[in-house]
## 1
Amino acid sequence: MKFWRQDRTISGDRRLYLYHFADAENHSRQRMFTRAVASAWKERAEAIEEWFAPVTQAMQQGLVGKGGLLLDIGCGAGSMPVGSEWTRIGVDVSAEVLTPRFPAIVAGCNPLPLRSGVFDAAISRFAVIFASDVTEAIKETRRVLVPGGTFVFSAWRSEELNASFDVPGRILGEQLGIRPISRSDPSAFRLADVDETARLLSGAGFDPQSAMDVELPYLARMDADSAFQHLMTFAGGIRTMFDRVALFDRERVKERIVKALDESDRTGYATVWIAKAIEP
């Protein structure tokens, strides 16, 4: 694992301040979720990319015709492919999941430990939604972009359109006595509302360009038991909650989740949307 604590010159005379930063409470929670599945994300990248392929393709379309310095917010294991026209720098709160595919730092996104006006584009695949303050995270993303820079990110749609996450999360929450999260809390569904997100982008000074729904058929093609096993392997939040269930209750809880997944409408199993915005 490399920590970058230096001025690093990339793409001509543009310089970055790169240093370790962590927002303790939320980052500690996100690191806990990541630790539960970090080895799978690093060692089974092909399964992740097959799962998220429609999202990745849609995000890549948002970057067509550009190139330069790219910030990957919540880069994780770095398995998301980007074109060779990009020089990528990653940030992620969890050191455990980072791999040496490209330079990356352990950092949060509000604030970003980077100089202003440096990056030609920024991407975030299911990461900015977990920021401690998503409004500030969006503002920080705009701050580090050059004029005309592009921000492309993905977010899960509502719970009703994502049974594959909502069903196990709801059952596990009931089992553990965890209060339902509010819409403003960091979560998979924090930016489910396209109109609200457009207002946040505009309020941060971005010019929202497009919003596109994308279906993820990967889990819907599996039987319910296989879908459950996939989530236990790759979904850190769900895995962490399941691990907190008492040992003598786990089989019963698993059966409840598998049964509920089996009865769920496959047309609303996993739905994402892709946003694109420009720094004017």
Note: Residues 24-43 form the longest helix (20 residues).
## 2
Amino acid sequence: MQEPFWLVEFSSESDAKLLTSRSVSLRKCLELWGHEKSIDLLHSTVRGKSGSFAAYFEPSKSFKIEVETVGRHFTQQEKVAKLEAFDYLPIRGPVKLKDPDVCLQYIEFYGTRTVNIPTTPYEVFFGRNVASGLRQLLKKLSLKTRKFIGNTSMDPQLSLLMANQAQVNSGSIILDPFVGSGSLLVAAAEFGGYVFGSDIDYLMLHGKTKPTRIKQQKRAKDESIKANMKQYNLGHKYID
């Protein structure tokens, strides 16, 4: 059975944050406080360890607890009941739903199959959210809202993965010799690189090809790679 999580050991929290700071496939990284095969066992484990995490329960630290179920749907009311089951935690700080000092996460994993879903989870997890990946970039760089796209525009996630493979960093100089509509340039510039490109297709390079969006009759005069860079406030990274 495929599992959408990894158990990884880091030498420090800063190492975990460093990894997630460039990951576009990773959603979040948790400091694991409990991992069991049943809900009751998890609560027993977390209850026994709660004293070790007293520093996160200080009155000065705001908090929230998120409940996530993978492979099975629950109503909001059912999720609230799961959250309230952690009422034994000695949390003394105020609740803050946006940008709290401490975000705790409870996860129930019911597998990845869409049929014969079990009534109880295969595994349950509880821990502190240490860092999140860069999934928000997928929405920010979505082709649906990009100014200039073509038939070969690359999916943002693939573009960002390729930029990571190229180890693009602040100050890198990136040339895409088959630039097309510039998807790879956008991703590389997002990671701090200075970018430029070339292409055998003159019309594509200058935004003169037929539009690829449904119902769009003709391209706008300002559709271009440069317009894309300006759209994402990356114009200063474009070597034109």
Note: Strands lie at 28-36, 63-70, 102-109, 123-132, 173-176, 194-197.
